[in-house]
Design brief:
The complex is a heterodimer. Chain A has helices at residues 6-13, 29-34, 39-63, 72-94, 96-102, 104-107, 113-121, 128-158, 190-207. By secondary structure, chain A is mainly alpha-helical. In chain A, helix 4 crosses helix 5 and helix 4 packs across helix 7. By secondary structure, chain B is mainly α. Helix content of chain B is 62%, strand content 0%. Chain B has 19 helices and no strands. Classes of the chains: A mainly alpha, B mainly alpha. At the A-B interface, helix 9 of A face helix 7, helix 8 and helix 9 of B.
């Protein structure tokens, strides 16, 4: 017996590709631009969002029959804020340096449109298990793009991956730098992330023409 | 060649062969018999070639200037400068040739490869748009720009600046300036400072008889450091005007740029309105800054003082402002289209260029940023100019009295004229 039924598997697989929250729905762009200069930061951000989304969707789904619809937004905010504070405190306790790099953007997970969007669109109307899968799926889709963007920006901008100098040492002039290669300062600044995301969208849509909207 | 073209007709690689064919031969097709065809000779190719012709003197001058700046930095500037003896020499020309020509070749080679690839993928003909861009690019970069950097920037500029918007004629931003901006933000150490403007400075070529490495700061660079005394002792006014100064490859000679500009205006390729209004804009901004200094509003130790006290009209003959106004701002695709829009567009290019120059010592050359900014605003300007026209006409229509065609009374006919 398969672990997940086909319908449930799609909840996870769809957001990874053809219904990606960043490249198709164009949500959560703000943090995708801000913290992707380094792969490590993108990775931690992705994991944080997966946690917040997975747990948040379960909580909202459990409470969906209790929350009065008139005040549902504020109830969702309380859930997501609680979870974000947990993430923030964990980061401060165990990865203090990194939490300084991510600074305000961990707190800003609260305003990530993907999270509120999934609460509203899915968790309020579906069972706990399916909401959990949906949350994990969308957060994974977000994380995949974050890591892709972070990979290119850190590799081209700083010549490192997770802080390791994969292209050689720019000061001692080893590896590629011995041939006159230089890091591309443009990739460090946020506009470059916009262009990288744009190129990912371009590649994705030319591979799958069904995604192109009617002009 | 004609056979090859026919053979590949309708095939995937057809655009590439067609491009070679039209580049080398006159087309072997004629218009169909029957019907009237009015043909204008000033097609896209003619337009592009005219701009290239206007750029040739600048390019030749840049060969000599590259050599002159290099040897002068090593041996010291000649005491009694004479053009024939110190400038137009084979040594200068040869050095310029081997440093500048690779830039031109890389720019054209890489750019055209990208154009060909896109033409084949999209199945349209290769467009001539890159001819001018490819010539402008080597002229607006520092002479020692590494060739691979130029290649990367050209790929970026052509793909992101032009092809994603739909190719020649559809681009929002000037591709040459997109390339320049990319280089500036990606590799700032190669694009500014006192080590990049003279060939050899970056590799640490030393001065004759001393252990100091050669340097060559631009005039704007000196001014940004409040070193106006060096500027006045080192560069005379005619040096600035004729271009015997350090700077990007082709931007130094205001005189030749002026000639090129007149040629473009005369052949009606470029808009004189944009040029004139950009000059006015930069003069106005320069005058404002001079006024601020004269009124004593700014102390001498301020970091803006050096550039602010620089006489307003001299802004036009140093740095890339003249080059930008003549060859970049007048790009018919990215500039404003309406007559009044052109005046506004040009004015703000000049105005903002000088403002960026003075207020941001980090960008001693503001003209490319100013033009890119106004490129973005050009459609907005056009929109409001057109709306303004519509509004004025609506008003006229509302006040006018409309008569039936067979109106008889003569007095009544005269009325609309007085409205």
């Amino acid at each position: 017996m398969a672990l997940l039924s086909k319908k449930d598997a799609n909840l996870i697989l769809d957001p990874l590709a053809d219904n990606n929250p960043i490249t198709i729905q164009v949500l959560g762009i703000c943090s995708a631009l801000a913290i992707t200069a380094e792969l490590q930061a993108s990775f931690v951000m992705a994991v944080s969002v997966i946690f917040v989304m997975g747990v948040g969707n379960v909580v909202i789904s459990l409470l969906r029959n209790v929350i009065p619809s008139k005040i549902r937004i504020i109830a969702q905010l309380i859930v997501v804020a609680t979870l974000v504070i947990v993430v923030d405190q964990v980061l401060k306790a165990f990865a203090y340096e990194l939490s300084k790099t991510l600074s305000v953007f961990v707190g800003l997970i609260i305003t990530n449109c993907i999270i509120m969007g999934r609460f509203e669109a899915f968790a309020l109307g579906n069972g706990v298990w399916r909401s959990f899968l949906d949350g994990i799926g969308n957060a994974l889709g977000y994380g995949v793009i974050l890591i892709m963007v972070g990979f290119f920006r850190e590799l081209l901008g700083s010549g490192t991956l997770f802080g390791y100098q994969v292209l050689g040492d720019p000061i001692a002039k080893t590896g590629l730098y011995a041939f006159g290669y230089e890091n591309n300062g443009f990739m460090i600044i946020p506009p470059a992330a916009l262009i990288v995301v744009g190129i990912i969208i371009w590649v994705q849509r030319s591979r799958n023409k069904a995604l192109i909207e009617e002009a | 060649m004609h056979e090859i073209k026919l053979k590949y007709q309708g095939k995937k690689m057809a655009p590439a062969f067609n491009a070679f064919h039209t580049f080398l031969y006159a087309p072997n097709e004629t218009t169909h018999a029957g019907g009237t065809h009015v043909k204008g000779a000033d097609d896209l190719k003619r337009t592009m070639n005219t701009v290239i012709m206007a750029l040739v003197p600048v390019l030749l001058f840049s060969f000599f200037n590259t050599g002159y700046q290099h040897y002068s930095a090593i041996n010291g500037f000649p005491e009694n400068f004479s053009v024939m003896e110190h400038f137009l020499t084979w040594d200068n020309f040869w050095l310029g040739l081997i440093t500048v020509l690779p830039l031109v070749i890389v720019s054209y080679g890489v750019g055209l490869i990208v154009e060909f690839i896109f033409a084949v993928i999209k199945g349209h003909e290769v467009e001539e748009g890159y001819l001018v861009t490819g010539m402008l690019v080597p002229l607006i970069v520092p002479v020692d720009t590494p060739l691979w950097m130029l290649a990367v920037a050209v790929v970026f500029g052509v793909v992101i600046g032009k092809e994603v918007f739909g190719g020649t004629g559809m681009n929002i931003l000037n591709p040459a300036l997109t390339i320049r901006a990319f280089l500036f933000f990606a590799y700032p150490t190669w694009m500014s400072g006192d080590k990049v403007w003279v060939h050899g400075a970056k590799e640490g070529v030393t001065q004759a008889g001393s252990a100091d490495a050669i340097t060559g700061e631009t005039i704007l660079g000196y001014l940004a450091q409040n070193n106006e005394t060096i500027v006045s002792s080192k560069f005379s006014l005619s040096d600035m005007f004729f271009g015997f100064i350090p700077g990007s490859v082709g931007e130094t000679s205001t005189f030749l740029i002026l000639l090129g500009g007149l040629f473009l205006i005369f052949s009606k390729i470029a808009s004189w309105r944009i040029m004139v209004s950009a000059v006015i804009g930069s003069l106005v901004m320069g005058l404002i800054f001079n006024g601020v200094v004269d009124a004593g509003l700014i102390p001498e130790y301020s970091k803006f003082y050096g550039l602010m006290q620089f006489e307003f009209w001299k802004h036009l003959i140093v740095g890339g402002l003249a080059f930008g106004i003549v060859y970049m701002a007048t790009d018919p695709v990215t500039g404003s289209q309406t007559t009044r829009g052109k005046w506004i567009y040009g004015f703000f290019i000049g105005f903002i260029s000088v403002m960026i120059r003075v207020f941001n010592p980090g960008y001693p050359e503001g003209v490319f940023l100013a033009i890119l900014l106004m490129n973005v605003f050009a459609p907005t300007i056009d929109h409001y100019v057109v709306r303004g026209n519509v509004k004025r006409r609506m008003k006229r229509l509302k006040n006018a009295t409309i008569f039936p065609k067979d109106s008889e009374g003569k007095t009544a006919e005269l009325q609309p004229e007085t409205v």
